[in-house]
Design a protein that fits this description.
About 40% of the residues lie in helices and about 10% in strands. The strands form two sheets. It has a nine-stranded mixed beta sheet with strand order 6-5-4-3-2-1-7-8-9. Strands 10-11 form a two-stranded antiparallel ribbon. Helix 4 links the parallel strand 2 and strand 3. The protein binds iron/sulfur cluster (SF4) (2 copies).
Length: about 450
Amino acid sequence: MRFPLALTVKIARHIIKHKLRRTPRFALVLQLEPLHTCNLTCTGCGRIREYSTSLKDMMSLEDCLASAEECDAPMVSVCGGEPLIYPKIEELTVGLLEQGRIVYICTNGVFMRKKMRDYLAATYSASQEPTLTRLIQEKLITDKEAEAIRKGKTDGRPVISPSTWMYWNVHVDGLEYTHDLIVEREGVFKECVEAIKMAKILGYQVATNTTVYRETDAREIEEMFQFFSSMNVDGHTISPGYDYDAAKKDMVQRLGRKPEEFFLTRAMTIEKFARIQDWAEKFTIFGTPVYQEFLSGKRDLSCTAWAIPTRNIRGWKAPCYLMTDGHYAGYHEMLEKVDWSKYGVEKGVARDSRCENCMVHCGYDPSGALGTNYQSGDNWKNFKYNFAPRPAPSVEGSKVKAYNGVSIGKGHMSGARNSATAGLNGAKSAFQHNGDHDHGGGCGSGDTSQRDDLLAKIRSPR
Ligand code: SF4
Ligand code: SF4
């Protein structure tokens, strides 16, 4: 099966329950953003820009868990910002799993190995020595880190353990050159690969999460899938990047580039995703075949953004993950008060001009699962896709030249560093993680000083 049986049953039960009750709108996936602080400033990320004045604010653990209870989505995608900077990420993960949810931790991968070392320390016994030896041999941990693991973990806090109900969902937008260009930092791709290797050795489930931009080469995406498939990654989510307001402003203000040079229009999305159904045959692409048909231009779908609601420090964000027309105190209040008929694209006409180029998963993937715009045979198509055997790990993947050149000095930031507009961005000015103020806790160093520094800044009074 492409997706584990127990998880499929959980989601199917949830949909059937609401269909029988004729619930007009309900949540499938909660996008939970406990904080917007991030150690990176990726090109195209509106989060750290839209919420740049509140980067030090965080949702309380209780608020996070209550939000998950309130909307009752079977899946929770913990994102941000970088969720591994959230000081109670372990308690949050455990709490969501205790509620019976499927948890995705959407991370840029930089702090994953630290969290997995914590897990190893918390569960250390002599029987783990062969695993530690392998991790040292593969240079995924150092001798010093192995020593620290052997001492155990005594702070009494939980850890993020491998579970069928939890995925690391690692942000990877291409092979090394492209990814480091987009995240505007050298070494991040390599760190993601090492974190994924370590996670697979320790028995975690791992997915990758890719946004496709105008400069992304579709052949490279296929090679990227081959590469990660050969590492036994459990699945991939993929979505087009389009020019929503917050990201658009960043392109202009910080990078001095025109949004249309970077983001996809609808027509370009359809072109880039022309082969998505072939990819879905070869790789474990998460999402429904109906959404894949939509991405490749074979059918229309209506936007069902209410099914993937976003909860953050300001409340329930409407209408969707990308666009903000308001924040509400409760999910049900948002469902009632938002005029959903104002959004999306119907029969080729955008109801809101900001929706014109959007084909993102958070607006349209649920439409495929919920039977919106149902066509005969859709249910069978979705069923067959999910229950078909998982595609075998790619043999070609081991030959892919994933390390195709670091991008520092050539990235999107290089122009901005020299321009008068550099530094206008909130995240950059708050944390100055680029260039001359780097703390040496960069990717792959195993050094957590950068994260610790961010945490200290979060804790300090404003
Ligand atoms: S990792 Fe990149 S995309 Fe994710 S929140 Fe941070 S800056 Fe945004
Ligand atoms: S189409 Fe839907 S998901 Fe896309 S921007 Fe509009 S409201 Fe948001």
